[in-house]
Specification:
The structure is a single chain. This protein is mainly beta and about 150 residues long. It has 2 domains: about 1-55, no CATH class; about 75-145, Beta-lactamase Inhibitory Protein, Chain:B, domain 1 (2-Layer Sandwich), CATH 3.30.1450. Helix content is about 10%, strand content about 40%. The chain has helices at about 1-5, 85-95, and strands spanning about 15-20, 25-30, 35-40, 50-55, 100-105, 105-115, 125-130, 135-140. Strand 1 (about 15-20) and strand 2 form a beta hairpin. The chain is globular. The two termini are about 20 Å apart.
Length: about 150
């Protein structure tokens, strides 16, 4: 989490949320200009447990500031990012382990599920890619199977 906070210190806004026991356990960075949000959940030891990058509006608002935004950096190690096409997901990661209908904020979406448990404990074990109208609107990377 220390590294994540340093990387995203210039985010437009951020918010820390605590758990029921009063301990911090998640952090949000929101870029209102591009309508993107990064949500990180972490353990008491500060180890990241899951990352979710989300496009939280159907249309992003006009570019507020010139140059790069925090949301421009939010992509997977293979380069998958929000707004990419479903075809791009399949090109980068191949066929998902499962695919099916789902909902996101009351909207019908398609969920692509990838399991990476074969790659060892040093990488995310699960990736869920949410597709709406053929485009990526949310990416979840998690340390453990959901």
């Amino acid at each position: 989490m220390e590294r994540a906070r340093k990387l995203h210190k210039r985010a437009i806004s951020d918010k820390v949320r605590g758990s029921d026991d009063g301990q911090e356990n998640s952090q949000f960075w929101t870029d209102h200009c591009t309508a993107k949000e990064l949500h990180v959940e972490f353990s008491a030891a500060g180890i990241i447990q899951s990352l979710t990058v989300r496009w939280w509006r159907r249309q992003s608002i006009v570019d507020c500031f010139p140059g790069r935004h925090p949301g421009d950096y939010w992509k997977t190690s293979r380069g998958l990012k929000l707004h990419d096409s479903k075809i791009r997901v399949l090109e980068l990661y191949g066929a998902p382990d499962s695919i099916g209908p789902s909902t996101l904020d009351g909207r019908e979406v398609e969920l692509l599920f990838y399991s990476f448990d074969w790659a060892g404990p040093d990488v995310p074990q699960v990736m869920e890619v949410t597709i709406e109208r053929g485009r990526v609107v949310q990416i979840l990377l998690a340390a453990q199977s959901l």
